[in-house]
Amino acid sequence: MAKLIILGAGESGVGAALLGKQQGYEVFVSDGGPIKDIYKHELTAHAIEFEESQHSWERILAADEIVKSPGIPEKSEVMKKIRATNISVISEIELAWRYSKDAKIIAITGSNGKSTTTALTYHIFHNAGLPVAMVGNIGISYAKQVATDPQEYYVIEISSFQLDDIKDFRPHVAILLNITPDHLDRYNYKMEHYVASKFRIAMNQVAGDYFIYCKDDPEIMNYLKNHSIHSTLIPFTIMEPLKEGGSMTNDQINITVNGDTEIVSMYDLALKGKHNIYNSMAAGIAGRTMNIRKEKIRESLASFKSLEHRMEFVATVRGVDFINDSKATNVNSVWFALESIENRPIILIMGGVDKGNDYSAIRELVKERVKAIICLGVDNQPIQDALGKEVATMISTSSMEDAVKAAFQQSNKGDVVLLSPACASFDLFKNYEDRGRKFKEVVREL
């Protein structure tokens, strides 16, 4: 019986363990930190051995194959020891794909908009009556879905970390939304390494597959100039008309696949803002590659409800709107958030664990649209240094209660208080969901 070691017992690790057990592997789960009770119960219920807050080296290094959690960096002690051996290391995405090759896979990556586009694509497929699951970085893990409730279609949100450890994973449709600096600490601060990681989504594709990409993204276009993709390329753009792909004329979105065009009015889209035109185009093209009827796509693009923690309206308090964009963990996401709020003064709550952010990308928009910045985090200095001169008021806080109260004090009727942190959340919160929920709780108590 082949020995499968799972490193990390989060959603993806536990999903990989369930699938490994189901497929007849001898499975052992090892996590260097504590394991959440919910996952411990799941592993115990399936009689899967595990350890927490330690690594049993002898057992790990006797593995036939290792599934690595996307959260474990290559420079960690555990990965250095494993890389010194010849043991195969794969991601949970790779393991899940092995046992779902007959399904149609629609995989979505990009620095920003992944979750929204994944949820929107799933909404289109689900509305069309197809047997589809939404998995990956959103919802349950791909491996757990394959193990417990296999489907004919999978719409998968995939991060660069998950792509780093694929070998044969091949999506029928790959979507690359954009590439902006993010997680560079994991890529030796080299943008070209991060770009190459994102493009791994298409590395095993063949002629009958589709690669859907943003023609307006300079990093994507630069890479395509120097590298070949073997699948059918379908671009989308808002800058010029296209014979094939997604484009705009006046206020209409045109989605053309195999010469057949679907037209959707920009005003009918459920999601507003320029970035969501891109997301809607990408999802619409994915639907057309799978021959989903045009009216179903049009109807789905109009009826979609946005995600929790992504430009989520929370409440209006004394004429001030509060918006939760806790999922904005990089500077570019904040740019999109600011860009989508027009003609209203913004009080911006931002800060957290800085991943080496370059705030210059949002300087102009901050100057133009933000009247106050409320810093929320353990180290707010980088934000103060970069954006202090662009706003009349900057206040440092170290709890969500203080941040929301300070923002409310700075606001007037008609203003928007926007939580869009640009940073990871691990200094004060468990994750971005915890941060977003705390924001909503405090706002509702005002």
Question: What attributes does this structure have?
Answer:
single chain; 446 residues; alpha/beta; Rossmann fold; UDP-N-acetylmuramoyl-L-alanine:D-glutamate ligase; Protein-Tyrosine Phosphatase, Chain A; six-stranded parallel β-sheet; six-stranded mixed β-sheet; 17 helices; globular
Commentary on this structure:
With 446 residues, this protein is α/β, with parallel strands linked by helices. It folds into 3 domains: 88 residues, NAD(P)-binding Rossmann-like Domain (Rossmann fold), CATH 3.40.50; 204 residues, UDP-N-acetylmuramoyl-L-alanine:D-glutamate ligase, CATH 3.40.1190.10; 133 residues, Protein-Tyrosine Phosphatase, Chain A (Alpha-Beta Complex). Helices cover 35% and strands 23% of the residues. The chain is built from 17 helices and 20 strands. The strands form 4 sheets. A 6-stranded parallel beta sheet has the order 7-8-6-9-10-11, covered by helices on one side. Strands 15-16-20-17-18-19 form a 6-stranded mixed beta sheet. Strands 3-2-1-4-5 form a 5-stranded parallel beta sheet. β15 and β16 form a beta hairpin. α5 packs parallel to α7. The model has no long low-confidence stretch (mean pLDDT 91).
Terminal CA distance reads 59 Å
* Count of discrete domains: 3
Spans of at least 5 consecutive residues whose pLDDT stays below 50 are: none
Write down the overall geometry.
globular
Largest sheet, in brief, is: 6 strands, parallel
Give the tally of β-strands. Answer: 20
How much of the polypeptide forms β-strand, as a percent range? 15-25%
If you average the pLDDT, what whole number results?
A: 91
Q: State the name of the first-level CATH class of the largest domain.
A: Alpha Beta
The level of helicity is 25-40%
Sheet with most strands: strand arrangement: 7-8-6-9-10-11
What is the fold named in CATH at topology level of the largest domain? UDP-N-acetylmuramoyl-L-alanine:D-glutamate ligase
